[in-house]
Each structure stands twice: as structure tokens, then as C-alpha cells.
Amino acid sequence: MLVLVTGGAGFIGSNLVDLLRRSGHSVRVLDNFSTGKREFLARTGDDTGTEVLEGDLLDLSFVERATAGVDSVIHLAANADVRFGWSHPRRDIEQNAVATQNVLEAMRLHSVRRIIFSSTGSVYGQSQTIPTPENAPFPTQTSLYGASKSAAEGLISAYAEAGVISASIFRFVSILGPRYTHGHVIDFVAQLSRDPSKLRVLGDGQQRKSYLHVSDCIAAIALRLNEDPGLEVLNLGTDEYCQVNDSIGWITARLGLSPSISHTGGDRGWVGDNPFIFLDTTKMQSLGWKPAYTIRQAVEETVDWIQENQWILSSANID
Amino acid sequence: MLVLVTGGAGFIGSNLVDLLRRSGHSVRVLDNFSTGKREFLARTGDDTGTEVLEGDLLDLSFVERATAGVDSVIHLAANADVRFGWSHPRRDIEQNAVATQNVLEAMRLHSVRRIIFSSTGSVYGQSQTIPTPENAPFPTQTSLYGASKSAAEGLISAYAEAGVISASIFRFVSILGPRYTHGHVIDFVAQLSRDPSKLRVLGDGQQRKSYLHVSDCIAAIALRLNEDPGLEVLNLGTDEYCQVNDSIGWITARLGLSPSISHTGGDRGWVGDNPFIFLDTTKMQSLGWKPAYTIRQAVEETVDWIQENQWILSSANID
Asked: Which 100-129 residues of chain B touch chain A by CB within 8 A?
């Protein structure tokens, strides 16, 4: 099968590309390399089963060319920067909703039926139901990121209901693991590499968050690739959550450091931060998937990977 | 109060402009006249309290200029063409979501806090709960129109949650009444004016639909204009629904015609048509609003208005 992976040079994308190649699929990577990295594709440099196209999803004719001849699309490319949405308010809707429609239109043009889409638990805003199941109402978006992913989901639903495509929409918690380039673990490791004696934490550190190891994430995607569900929405996360303060303990222990910790205070790290994210993954687990990593293991493996790949600290998008 | 009404030359917009002027407000109309009509603003031609700006919401600098100095915004401009979404798939997301974000950004720039937004019962897709309350889940969009309005709602929610704006989101059923320019009543009257002996109906005519008279719609908007709700979502509709076949009976009786009626068949008129729309309006009624017109009265008054304004049959967007 020839699979188009948008954002295939990114954190999740490049891990997925490796898995697809190991499974015998051919892969076409589409990436604009705004946050994706050529280093993540390096291992597949002499791999004739991997094709890399550099370009932007907002360029419809490029997307149409890139979609010609593929069997399915895994659409991961996105502006994944939740926290800094208010610094560039139009980026989310353009890169997450308009770009997604370009992918859908290209699929329609070439009669490519199958799409897997990376949405987010952020679409639930601050859900009243925790753990949050897929059919929980989400009347109120709390971030531009969540709003734009919800918009993309709506577009995908409309195309699926019209019979144009067959879609799996995955709503992820935060993903950790090798090639991780943005989020609290890298922020904390970066702070501690500058000054191992202190750590500044946004909010009160009591925010309860869920994390999933990238291996578990891409295993779920691969499991659904050959299916034809019409339209399905699937939460992805572990059966547990942690406090940011727990994660800090695991990170500093792994680094062998005992910094003094200061909290900026408040129950949110930033405008639109969600103080409690925990998704109900019963539906995906009933399809034969189960996460292999605990949150602690995922955090520790992420710390190890950053330690072994210090170059990422200078190239990543860090506070 | 100076109120900016986007889409102020349209069906609902121009009726609202008249109401606002009668209530003593100054009005700035923003319209690109793609479906809005200068005839609908004619009565206010020598009215110094009404300013008309011609331009497009996709032009951010224009929207920013138009928003300077206003006290509140009623954002009605939209691509309201549900049925023909698949003929121009990018129009919905551009004109309903991207355009809405331009309005929000212009408000942020000028610190304009209050917005009223016209969303739609279509965001519920095919709801499992009927009558459908505001907090019903809507995981599946069935039309590009619904998806794009849901996207706009998400953006508005995110801006409201961030404290940038205070928003009332109204989810309308189909609106009828004077200056109505698109939908089944004008389609049927147009068909019968070409050939009074026969009428072709999309679907089996048993689709159950809700309609609201434009006077009742704008009364609800006016009632909330001076409020500062933070964020509220309010359904608007009557306490009843009808079948398309009921409406056909009222229309033909009003015209004094007895055409032979042919149905194209199926429970939907077109891809994404919703066979049963009925909204729970308890929330808006608890705020002191009540619709004055029955659906039959709204249909009949619409027929009368079209009869008295036959010019609309040549300029409207009719099947």
C-alpha cells in the first residue's frame, strides 16, 4: 500500500513512517519542514520505499499532485502549538482547518477513500465528564487549537457522511517519546540544562494531564489503517493521568537533579490551558489496542532521548 | 449604540437594520452584496443613522476599518447555501470560519467586546435528541455548511473563553418572511410561476422541518443585544415542526393553485439534507422571548411577499 503521511517528518509522523516501512508499506512523506526535521527521516535516506515531498498544505495544487496515486492518507500535519495560539491567531484555522480541507479536496479529486486524522482531546474543552468518552458534548472550545481541530473534524465528518471518504479521527492526549520536540518535558529539560539548580513551572503544577508514548499512538493508527469504518472517532490515551508535579519528579530524578522549583501559580499554565485532561479509551481498547507504556515510562524515555539528542534543544520550539 | 451588522443588506440583516434603527441605534452595514441587495436598504437611503460599507470579510484590513468605533457587532454575513455546498467546497470554510475569525480579530484590535453570531441548527447534524437542546452532542457534521458554522462557533468560544469578547451564539432553524431570497418556499413559488400545473419536490416530502418568522428571529437578537453573557448558545425556532408536504399545501392554497406534485423520492432532498430538524428553545424562552408566528403564518407571509415582489424571482438563487 502507498500511504501519504502529511507531517511525515515530524515527531509522530516520522515514527509512523518507520513503522509503516517495517510493515512493508511504501510511504510518501509530505512536509513543509516548519517543525518537521530532515534528521528524523535520515535513516530512510537510501530507502527507495520512502518518497519525500517538500511543500505546504495551503498550496492546493501541490497537495493534489502529492495525493495522486496513493492508497490512503494519514493526515498528521498541523500547527500543534496550543499554548502560543494567541501570538498568531490565524495560524490554527489556516493550518488545521483550511489545510485539512485541501487534503480532503485532493482525495476527492483522485478518489482516494481512506483517511486517518490526528485530532486532539482539546476539542472537548473543559469537559464535564472525566474520563471523557468520544460522544461527550463539546459546546465550548477553550483554545484556538481545539477550535481548529474541531473544525477539521467537522469537515472530515461532512465528507464522510457524503460518502466521499472513510475516516478514522483519533483524539490524542499529549504524545511523548523519541523525537519529541515540544511540550513540558523538553521545556523542563531545556531549563535545567541552562541552570540545573532551578525550575520554573507554569501554573500551580497540580494540572492533571494525560500522556501517551508515541509507540502506542502509532500502533493504534496502524491497527486501523486497513479498516473501512465510514466514520469513526477514537480517543487515544493511557488509563491513567498524572499531575505536572509528578512529571517534574520523574524528570528531575531521571536527570539526577534536585532543583528548587517555583510555580507561577493558578490552576492553568496559560490562557486556554486545561487543568484536567483524561480520556476514556474504552472504544479503542475494544478494537484490540492497549497502551504498553505507563506515563512515567513515557516521560523517562523522553528525557533519555533528549539527553542523547541534545541538538534538539537548540532547534526545538522551547519557552 | 453604534452596531456593526455584517451581512446587513441580506434577508435577516436588513430586517434587523430596520429594527435597530426603529429602536434608536445607529447602524453600520457591512456587505459584499453577493447575495445582499441594495433594494433591502432602500428605505434607509436618506437615513443618516445608517452607514453602508461595501467590502468582503475575507479582506482583514477592510474588516478592521469597518469595526473601528463600533459598540457591538452582529455577525450575520455567511455563505448560507446549505444545499449546494458540494459545488464549491471551499466556500463554506472561507466565508463562515475564516471570515468569522477576521471579524473576531478586528474586534480584538479595537477592543470591541460584544458579538452576536448567527449559527444554525445544522451544527447538530442528525441529532439523536429531538427536540434538540443546546447541550446535545454533535460529533458528526452532515454538511459543509454545518461544519463551517460549527468551526465559527468554536473560534468564537475560544475568544470568549480567553476573555476577548462576550458572545451570544444563536442557532437558527430556517428563517422565513419578507425579503426571503432562498429556500424551499421561493423554489416552489418560482416553479409554479413558470408552470402552475406541476411541482417537483426533492425527497419524499416527508422531511420534518422547523421554520421561524424573521420578525421573531430579530426580536430575539435585539433582546440579547444589551446583555454581557460572556458566552451563551441559544436555539431559535418555533414550538412546532411541519412536513415539507404540509408547507406545499399552504403554499399552493395561498396561491390558489392545485398543481400535480411529483417527489424525487428518498428521505433526504439532497446530500446532507437533514430529515428531521426540531430545536428545543426552552433556554431562549426562559429569557423572555416567545415566537409570535406559527410556521403556517410564516410560510403564508413569505408567499405573499414573493407575490408582491416578483422581481426577487429573477434575482434570487433558485433551483
From this structure: 101, 104-105, 108, 125
Q: Return the DSSP state at B226.
A: T
Show me where the domains of chain B are located: 2-175+211-236, 177-209+240-278+293-315
Class of B177-209+240-278+293-315 per CATH?
A: alpha beta
Q: What is the pLDDT along chain A (319 residues), one digit of tens a residue?
A: 999 999 999 999 999 999 999 999 999 999 999 999 999 997 655 677 899 999 999 999 999 999 999 999 999 999 987 777 788 889 999 999 999 999 999 999 999 999 999 999 999 988 889 999 998 876 688 889 999 999 999 999 999 999 999 999 999 999 999 999 989 999 999 999 999 999 999 999 999 999 999 999 999 999 999 999 999 999 999 999 999 999 999 999 999 999 999 999 888 877 777 888 999 999 999 999 999 999 999 999 999 999 999 999 987 655 4
Buried-state track A82-105, b at ≥16 Cβ within 10 A, e below 16: bbebbeebbbbbbbbbbbbbbbbb
Q: How far is A3 from chain B (nearest CA, A)?
A: 24
CATH 3.20.20.70 fits A2-175+211-236, yes or no: no
Q: Whose grid coordinates read 406559527?
A: B294
In CATH terms, the superfamily for domain A178-209+240-315 is UDP-galactose 4-epimerase, domain 1 (3.90.25.10)
The ipTM value here is 0.87
Full-model pTM: 0.92
* Closest Cβ opposite residue B141 in set A105, A134, A157: A157
Phi and psi of B156, rounded to 5°?
A: -60, -45
